[in-house]
Amino acid sequence: MVKKEMIAMLLAGGQGSRLGVFTSKVAKPAVAFGGKYRIIDFPLSNCINSGVDTVGVLTQYQPLRLNTHIGIGIPWDLDRNIGGVTVLPPYEKSVNSEWYTGTANAIYQNLDYMESYNPEYVLILSGDHIYKMDYEVMLDFHKQNGAEVTIAVMPVPMEEAKRFGIMITDNDRRITDFEEKPENPRSNLASMGIYIFNWKTLKEALLTNASQPGLDFGKHIIPYCHEKGAPLYAYEFNGYWKDVGTLSSYWEANMELIDIVPEFNLYEEYWKIYTKSEILPPQYLGSDSIVERSIIGEGSEIYGQVYNSVIGCGVTVGEGTVIRDSIIMNETRIGSHCELHKAIVAENTVIEDDVRLGIGEEAENETDPHIYNSGIVAVGEKSFIPQGVTVGKNSVVFGVTSAQDYAEGSLPSGKTLIKAGDKQ
């Protein structure tokens, strides 16, 4: 029987509904990030950089692009004969088929997969955070303390602590209590949703609690282990960690990559971020183009001006076009003499000539102000914006639109224009 010391289970089933149109066709971990990457590249790269070579990726929502991206794991050096990366969707069972209903339920449904490696430890990760972390150091901490469960925590400002699961520890970092989103937090150590379990402890907890509806780590498994008196420890992490769950945090995390001294450095030799790269020619900058403080992906052609933006691969920017503070994802075509301010434009979109995005005063979005805010204009994938129209801030366009969709050639700030139909 194969024996692995530690295997990783990466939860990548999330819809990420707070990313609005950007996750209506694709699971959140497969959303593009930083030009050439996808969000899931970061935890996967952390695994291979930490010497964890067996990773089960649990998918559920819109898994196609995620599955195609991961393939057999070659970019992460995870194409192993023994171990490697395995995509684990929910599957038909002879008795009753069920979707993954909670984070721990998804792990429970894959007990056989974990059992086949007979690991000593299981690392549980989520597929939608941007960070670099050496899981080996966390495992050493787990072993030194004789822990059965170690939870990675991050100090957060006390006034923000009520938004997180908070761990209360003694001087040795042993967890004495924990509170989910407490009104009056007693500690500022927030759970990062990264756990190391002894395999025996995890298996027993999953089997005992299997019938709980929506079986969840924070709500069921961790409290169960704590009540049983299992030693739980908090491993403090002080590096860069970003939950890119909202449009504004996603936009900020991308913008932080182009700071003069980026807090999150994509260029470190000893901690590479691996991804599946298409075979593309180098980027091309036209003779009149200007590019300042930006990331430009491979195969992109820039004939206009790009300032403080993240441009993906295979993007065309026409002459006379000015793009500022924006994120343009792969294979998008932007015509000439356009203006884009604080726009997030998804993949395979066509923007015709003389289009202006992010213009005018801000107004609250009419349909989903909790998603579309911070002055960002959002354009979903495979959209088409016709020539000469103006789109305001906190607005969203998704689908193949025509001139008739824009009264007097404009979509005012805060408006939502989503075309139903097969093109989406």
Poorly predicted runs of 5 or more residues: 91-98
| Overall pLDDT level | 85
Number of helical segments?
Answer: 8
Q: Which band does the percent of strand residues land in?
A: 25-35%
Distance between the termini: 47 Å
Radius of gyration: 23 Å
Shape summary: elongated
User: How many beta strands in the DSSP annotation?
Assistant: 33
Structural class, please?
alpha/beta
Q: Helical proportion?
A: 10-25%
The profile of the biggest β sheet is: 9 strands, mixed
Could you explain the architecture of this structure?
There is one protein chain. The protein is an alpha/beta fold. The chain is 16% helix and 27% strand. The chain contains eight helices and 33 strands. The strands form six sheets. Strands 1, 4, 5, 6, 8, 9, 10, 11 and 12 form a nine-stranded mixed sheet that branches. Strands 15-18-21-24-27-30-32 form a seven-stranded parallel sheet, with no helix packed on it. Strands 16-19-22-25-28-31-33 form a seven-stranded parallel sheet. A hairpin with a 3-residue loop joins strand 2 and strand 3. Helix 6 crosses helix 7 (217-227). It is elongated, with a radius of gyration of 23 Å. The model is unreliable at 91-98 (pLDDT under 50).
Notable traits:
9-stranded mixed β-sheet; alpha/beta; 16% helix; 7-stranded parallel β-sheet; 424 residues
